[in-house]
Amino acid sequence: MERHILDLFLAAFLLLCLSGLRLSKAGQLFNSAGLERDQTVALRGVLCVLILFHHSAILTGAGFSAGVLKRIGPYVVGLFYALSGYGLMASWEKSGPSHYWKKRWRSTLLPYLLLSAAAAALRLALGEALSLREILLSFVNGKPLIRYSWFILTIALYYLVFYLAGLSAKRDRALLTALVGVCVFFAVFALRRLGFEGYWYNAAWCFPLGILWYALYPRIVRAFERHPWIYLLLSGACAAWLTLVSEYFFWFDYLSTLFATAAVSVFLLLLMLKLRLRHPLLRSLGEMSLEVYLVHGLVVTALSSYLSLAEQSPLFLLLFFPAALALSWLCHLGFRRLLH
Question: Is the predicted pLDDT of residue 219 greater than 90, yes or no?
Answer without folding.
Answer: yes
